[in-house]
Amino acid sequence: AQKITQTQPGMFVQEKEAVTLDCTYDTSDPSYGLFWYKQPSSGEMIFLIYQGSYDQQNATEGRYSLNFQKARKSANLVISASQLGDSAMYFCAMREAGGGADGLTFGKGTHLIIQP
Amino acid sequence: NAGVTQTPKFQVLKTGQSMTLQCAQDMNHEYMSWYRQDPGMGLRLIHYSVGAGITDQGEVPNGYNVSRSTTEDFPLRLLSAAPSQTSVYFCASSTLTGFDGNTIYFGEGSWLTVV
Fold first, then answer.
1. Which residues pair with B48 in a beta bridge?
2. A→B interface, C-beta within 8 Å
3. Cβ atoms A90, A112 nearer than 8 A
4. pLDDT, position A64
């Protein structure tokens, strides 16, 4: 079974609209971290936001926020007021404390295209 | 500047050739890892290391070899390149217990084509 599922292969959004990118995860480890990365066409991996499994509040970083619903095992990324520069691949990833040495497990990504 | 440095950025190999992708970090991180990214896929873990002298396999280790003789360096060796190893390779480092996203650093990627 996939540990990270991103169900939106691609999305088209109008500039200035808010965007929600879906991510569900599967783990039996009570301690884990959830990450979102942006990968523009240039290829580098850019860290956006992090949510720990014990964090009481949803993480926010500027225009990015993470809608963390622990019971549903959901960690959706919300981008407010989208910009043309937000066009990129977006990856959700998880790191489990028990298997922490196993690194990050990534979803297959969502290709987001912002239209003017 | 602190960070993870990968070389080379681009490489074309012939089937059967061997090569080494270099990865170095200057943040004294215990944990280093190699990922590969194929079209339509997220990154998949190849090998990782939790400290000098310690390495282990990830999800897709076949055809690759690693060593960790120093804290700073974690080279990835392709023993006999195959077209299936055409991919983009990322090196990453972090503290061993780091669960803050800001402590995971990625290199800029190495584009490898095997013909």
1. B33, B56
2. 4, 31, 33, 35, 43-45, 47, 49-50, 52, 91, 93, 95, 97, 100-109
3. yes
4. 97
